[in-house]
Design brief:
With 542 residues, the protein is mostly helical. It has 25 helices and two strands. It has a two-stranded antiparallel ribbon with strand order 1-2. It is globular and about 70 Å long.
Amino acid sequence: MAMRLIHRKRWALPKQDSSIAPPHVWSNADQDPVPPEKWTWTGWTFTQYWLSDLVTVSTWSAASSAYASGLSATDTVLLTLVAALCNAIPTVLNGAVGADLHIPFPVAIRASYGSYFGYFCVASRAALALFWFGIQSSYGGQCVTPMITAIWPSYANLPNHLPASAAITTQGMVSYVIYHVIQTPFLFIPTHKLQYMFIFKSTLVPPMALAMVIWISVKAGGGSAIFHEPPTVHGTERVWLWLTNMTSITGGFSTLAVNISDFSRFSKRPGSPVWQLPMIPLFKVITGLFGIIAASASKQVYGTILWSPLQIIDEWQGSSGGRAAAFFCASLWLLAQICTNISANSISFANDMTTMCPKWFNIKRGMILCMILGGWALCPWIIIESGKTFLSFMGAYAIFMAPFAGILCCDYWIVKRRKYDVPALYDPRGIYYYKLGTNWRALVCNLLVIVPLLPGLAHSVTPDNVSIDTGLQHLYAINYLYGFCLSFTLYFVLNYFWPDRATLIPAVVPGVVRPLNAVDSDLEAELSDQGKVVHSAEKLKD
């Protein structure tokens, strides 16, 4: 039995001949257009999704960190609003692809990049999701520590038996393991049913965050004084610091502007994703405002600025009532972390794997691989311990995401006028093959946009070793706006003068999901209770 478990062929998914893909192409049901019975996401679902994704420790801390850089509270609120709009507009526009055609991002990107060059975008997004899954899991482990300490105060003094080279303490590792034990069952929730998890989180976490802000503001005697404090930087330094922080906050959610169709493909109506346009700025600004007010109030209450809500919770461990509050609040921040990690990272990676390796991966297997590689193989606690260098590089990954988002948006709305041939997207030799599987227009746009930003990226990662002039530093400070707008414009110009007429079809060719008998692998069938597992999709009604 052990040998059969590790035999490569035993893990292969059976070829699904009735998939929308041509007979010679290996595919699986997770790549196909979503059938109508799974069109469950409404505008309210998207509202709950973003309420779940934005009311988090990272959003709270990002705004307070911008305030700490020397900007005023008003500056920070305004730049957070602009950053949110920079996220919301491309997210809504690119979400229309999934809402209209019910296809995932790895399939949709082929229309603009080509059937093979599109894999570059998919692999780039997958790598980013993998690293951020691990990093967010590490932050989730930090939520577990105050929870356990609230129950057993001695946990705060747990002896460390790990060497310094491990870059994590025994306490940290125990918390990290417990976090994964809690998170793992959530990975198996089907995407079209995630709305129930979002409802649960959006009902509990925002009121808790508001209560924390009110409590610490009252403790400090009010939090309005922060908006009367002037900035500590002035002139052009203030302008570029403003733009740098705005770009940094925008970049944190740059991937979702690209892969939102992984979720919008479950939309009940084409207009459902439009709800994101007001909701993303609203939730991002409110959560950022919480962080700014709490940071200012914490200085008066504790004598030092506390940027993270978890730091505030740590201060409550001195009494039984404080520990009860600490456990409750830390538990809800833990829930917020799990929701964000699943929606922003694990599902994205799983969708990418079903495209790159459809013979071996479906969504469920992709989620498990993401947990193994991102959560453990990459040792994310070492990544965080390595300091700002690696995190600067990961944050700078937005220089790749911006042109992806700009080109996808321009292609669907302007060049193709929302007219895609869906079956052709699943055919490697179809009309979206272009030449050698690559749309040269997208390739040129990526080169012209990304290459000028590489010196700024190198300087950001290793500022002591790489010196660049002020102009390149300023260009890098606006890398997301520059990347999105320039790629959008260049792609439009290239297609205007040198169009690929074969892809300019007169009407949409929708995907036809035929009856599908999707079975698990032979091994999974043998391990099931009944000896086999058969999933039958109902025949679609006209």
